[in-house]
Sequence to fold (373 residues):
Amino acid sequence: MSVGHVVVTGADGFIGSNLRLRLAERPGVTVVGITRSTTPEERRAALAGARIVFHLAGVNRPTDVTEFERGNADFTATLCDELRAVGRPVPIVYTSSSQALKDNPYGRSKRAAELFVEQYAATTGANAAILRLWNVFGKWARPKYNSAVATFCHNIARDLPIEISDPAAPLSLIHVDDVVDALLDFLDTDVARTGLVDVGPVHQTTVGALAETIRAFAASRRTLTVGDVGTGFLRALYSTYVSYLPPSDFSYPLVRHEDPRGMFAEMLRTRAAGQFSVFTAHPGVTRGGHYHHTKTEKFLVVKGTARFGFRHVMTGERHEIVVRAEETRVVDTVPGWAHDITNIGDGEMIVMLWANEAFDPGKPDTIVAGVNA
Fold:
């Protein structure tokens, strides 16, 4: 589809804000947002020039249940009438809800809105896609409004209590980035799509498991341990939790261990991919002097000049590597080789360290052995 004038209803809402940001990143796209403050005249003018309409506006937590009908069904009917008046088939993508087939005021209002969209497509020939979404979570969702995820993240990030009536209650969740990706697909393909469109992945969990996971995220600053937050559901949930940190908590201190040699601080532990640390050494100081059976490490000198010494503990073979910070060069330690690191520069040496396993004091796999023994 050729992209140009894009209209977004509910533009200042949770999904709308995320969609507008992604659209703004694209060259050649002009976004016109429709909000509750938009006048009917402004709305009709926006629709007159629309290449596509993303209809995200709706009501899901009103003070009066009659607002469901007005905010979901009636507004959608008005929008479709105004699109008919444009005189050409303007595509529309409507974000409905998985509740649309349930017999409750919210579900009935969303299904009624779907029917208006379907009728608009039937009478104009326009493409009209309906996305029935599960509970959407992600950055910028409103606590105590959009989802339990938003409430839990907001409160736990501020050490506030959360209320859980049934920890075993199931939750089906979808990340806002996946929703936005699905919406943007309508701009990135010329293939006409109409009717119901599946959006995923949908992540299954429980209220109790959700709360426990978010609490673990908060505790990670103390334990220095994070789970598998690089992929899938945990990646999306961790990102969401961090987005709720107040600016005053964007940073946090580490525990520094200092002695005459310099400083050592552990930065981060993972459950399956080791740990990260940083240490310093004063001029002439040597650190290390041990070997490992299984553990391996990677050293990166970020300031100063280091001499790495190695000795094979069985054959006595020796090896030496000199590394300067400006080389940005990684040095591996190898099982069965005693190793040490000496600051041979004139100033402080700073080194980043990754070990492939988190340190276990009950089984440290660190045996004292000098390189020059």
Remarks:
- The first strand starts at residue 5 and ends at 9.
